[in-house]
Specification:
The protein has 220 residues and is an all-alpha fold. The chain folds into two domains: 89 residues, no CATH class; 106 residues, Up-down Bundle (Four Helix Bundle (Hemerythrin (Met), subunit A)). The protein contains eight helices and no strands. The radius of gyration is 24 Å and the shape is elongated. The relative contact order is 0.10. The model has no long low-confidence stretch (mean pLDDT 83).
Length: 220
């Protein structure tokens, strides 16, 4: 079917976003809509509580502590509210990032550790966890290169990734262009680990470069 003749899609993400809007602003006249200011303060409280769990938290004032029987319910409720809303709000961006990638066609499937690193690097990128994506792209790259060098040259001595890349290129285990891609992934990962957080553009560059290296490594 020609794209011009396709019906306007109503994706699952749109259904979920609509459901949240209706929850925040009910259409039923018998249901009192939430006060905008109170609702904003409530959602900000939910976000703040989630940040406290993910990052650092000041000790609570004794008078602000919840009774033990309510604390578990409160954390579960907060997590449900925060992550459900965050996931739905991020879905359009996640789908857009997903659509920028294509499957890697290879001659043989990679070893399990390499496949896990690559899958998690890709998911981190899709979910917007750019530092994690670059770090895991490097891990996938290193696992793939180490495996290739071990198979072709025997036992691998303890070496830095830069040395492994140089050795693989020197012995023609990877092409010069692929070695350049591998070095670029290594440098981007070093920036993330030792300097500053990465942008989406750099995470995409690192992931695409790592996937290119692994395509050649698994292409035979």
């Amino acid at each position: 079917m020609h794209p011009d003749h396709l019906p306007d899609p109503l994706f699952l993400s749109e259904h979920l976003a609509r459901a949240l809007r209706e929850l925040d602003e009910p259409d039923d006249e018998l249901v009192r809509p939430p006060d905008p200011e109170e609702h904003r303060e409530y959602l900000e409280g939910v976000r703040e509580t989630a940040r406290e769990l993910e990052e650092f938290k000041m000790p609570p004032h004794p008078q602000c502590s919840l009774p033990p029987e309510l604390e578990d319910w409160y954390w579960r409720h907060t997590g449900d509210q925060f992550y459900a809303r965050e996931a739905v709000s991020h879905l359009p961006h996640m789908v857009e990032r997903f659509s920028r990638l294509r499957p890697i066609l290879v001659g043989r499937l990679p070893d399990r550790p390499l496949a896990i690193y690559l899958r998690e690097a890709t998911r981190c990128f899709v979910y917007g966890l750019f530092q994690g994506s670059i770090a895991l792209a490097r891990a996938a790259l290193e696992a793939g290169l180490n495996r290739r060098v071990e198979l072709k040259l025997g036992s691998l001595p303890q070496m830095e990734l830069k040395e492994v890349i140089d050795k693989a290129a020197r012995f023609k285990l990877i092409s010069g262009g692929t070695a350049d891609l591998a070095q670029r992934v290594r440098k981007l990962a070093n920036q993330v680990l030792h300097s500053k957080p990465a942008s989406e553009a750099l995470a995409f560059e690192a992931l695409v470069a790592a996937r290119g290296v692994l395509r050649e490594l698994c292409g035979e």
